[in-house]
């Protein structure tokens, strides 16, 4: 099996699914696509190219409770192989799934899954889709992308801000805030150690003041950086400006 990722958690990166599918097809390998986070882009005609080739996957995971903000938990597992779940998971427990019922027992889906009696998460998404429509979900996704692009361009050349990924693929914007005391000191040996402490301190202040919540983390040898992930289409450009101004306010004396 090859597992491709469509929308990584931290950077929002997308694997080239179509190219991976070519290799899997040539060698008869199962292709799984983890689109838990990035699958929401499929709702947008403008951005669905990020998942080009996903129709060739043997299986896909997708969490509509992420980008599409369906009520948690809402996770889906999709496969084009009609009987593979039953063949893989069914134990035919007679005390649960009798096969001599008066109706078609293929509707008893519990025996297809490891979770057995788990709720059918997809109903939440189905009702939401019926309420908002495809156009409504597409507008939601596009608004998040537009806010992400606006935020990225606002901090691209702003003093004190430095992008980790200069051209984000998704609505994840990763960046450092470099307070005035550290600017121009990038070549000093203890710069990374000091910068590593900045994001946690600003996060502490924003939570204690109750103004906003933005996560942070390191990656490999990179010091802690902020990760603004946009999935709420009720936000607008003034909110993006607020995020920037508030980070500056909370970190100006560090």
TrEMBL record:
Its cofactor is pyridoxal 5'-phosphate. It comes from Sousa chinensis (Indo-pacific humpbacked dolphin). This is Uncharacterized protein. The modification N6-(pyridoxal phosphate)lysine is found at residue 66. Homodimer. GO terms for biological process: carboxylic acid metabolic process. It comes from the Eukaryota. Pfam families: Pyridoxal_deC. One of its GO terms (molecular function) is carboxy-lyase activity.
